[in-house]
Design brief:
By secondary structure, this protein is of the alpha+beta class. It contains five helices and five strands, in the order ββββααβααα. The strands form two sheets. It has a three-stranded antiparallel β-sheet.
Length: 129
């Protein structure tokens, strides 16, 4: 399940079991997030998630006529996969996709996004020390 979170801060959603105890938490970082379908089904019931979905600040990356359970980057056409990659800020997720992706255009987009993340998050040298 690919879910885009369009806010600059991280969102943590506690998943509560039938005994009202938190058994795990899901963390949404800005950009595209990969979420297990079962966890997403539970997340959608969280009030803050409902608000963000209504405001379209949290969006499921669905293909037309597709179900949430089937969604993965490999299921997307190249142009859609490239757009998803460009919105992904998690290098571990990008590396995971690169390991299983075979389409040249998508692989190129993944490498470009990894390079962009590295350039924008690299430590900066102090000027005039």
């Amino acid at each position: 399940m690919l879910v885009t979170y369009d806010k600059p801060n991280m969102l943590t959603v506690p998943l509560v079991n039938e005994k009202h105890a938190v058994d795990k938490s899901i963390h949404f970082t800005p950009g595209v997030n990969s979420i297990d379908a079962d966890d997403w089904a539970r997340c959608k019931e969280f009030p803050k998630v409902k608000q963000l979905l209504a405001k379209q600040l949290l969006k499921v990356e669905l293909k037309e006529n597709d179900t949430e359970e089937k969604l993965a980057i490999a299921d997307a056409p190249v142009n859609k996969a490239v757009l998803i990659v460009k919105k992904t800020l998690n290098p571990l997720l990008l590396e995971e996709w690169r390991a299983v992706e075979s389409r040249a255009g998508v692989l190129k987009a993944i490498q470009a996004q990894l390079d962009h993340i590295e350039q924008t998050t690299a430590p900066r040298k102090a000027v005039n020390q």
